[in-house]
Amino acid sequence: MNLLRSEWIKLWTTRTTWVMLGVALLGEGLFAGLYVGLAPLDEIGDIDQVATGTGLLLVMMLVLGVLIATTEFRHGTSSSTFLVSPRRWPALLAKLGVALAIGLVAGLAYVVVNGGLALPLFEGREGVLPAASDLAEIYAGVVISYALICAFGLGVGEIVRNQVGAIIAAIAFFFVLSPLPELLPGSIGDYFPAQAIGALHGNPEGDASLNQVEGGLVLAAWAAGLVALGTLLICRRDVAE
Q: Where are the alpha helices (DSSP H) in the chain?
């Protein structure tokens, strides 16, 4: 509990955390308000697609996960952390808990911003909202995806440890390799992280074979595997390497 409290204080008292969350939520809010308020209803189509947002906050959570893992290595404070926790893995487990927690907090804030702006505007323009249960499933998937993608970024950061290199690697994995599954046979491509996120969001475009639960499990497996590998490497390597 002390390690969890320590990691939470480190994250919550860092200006970067607030700037990233603020910029991302502002961008998502502008999208929800301006697009739903000004675009023709036939162009908006299904409000389900608006509910998943622009992906800006998703990228910010990915980067924030990397920062949770790499900031101490960049500033040389990891030695002090591991002196307090010599076995290392409890400190790394605390970082995972904080990454999941901040992802959930960001997701809930997103639901308030997106749902609070997009849904009333859409309904006020005489658009037909889907069933409350359908919207709840989409928003639940979005919230969970933010938590898991933050843990995913944490795993990449623990493996690479160089802050800039880890951020580039994490983003490239999604945006550079995301078209690759289209070249693979069968449904192999559905098990890539970007495609799993689409399924977890309810797959508004309807082109993936995974359902929402399966998409969540695939993304969780990716995050767990990266964090496990990163934890193993950090526990075995010298901090100064």
A: 2-12, 15-30, 36-38, 41-44, 47-51, 56-75, 78-84, 89-124, 132-160, 163-175, 193-200, 212-236
Taking Cα atoms as reference points, which of 181, 200, 183, 184 lies closest to residue 192? Answer: 181
Pair 3, 72: CB distance under 8 Å: no
Alpha-carbon distances, residue 184 vs 22, 129, 178, 221 (angstroms): 38, 37, 12, 20
Q: For residue 206, what pLDDT is reported? A: 45
How far is residue 101's CA from residue 159's CA, in Å, rounded to a whole number?
21
All residues at 6 or more sequence positions from 175 whose CB lies less than 8 Å from its CB, including other chains: none
Chain position carrying tokens 């499990």: 217
> How many angstroms separate the CA atoms of 46 and 144, rounded?
22
Who has greater pLDDT, 1 or 167? 167
Sign of CA dihedral 87, 92, 93, 97: positive
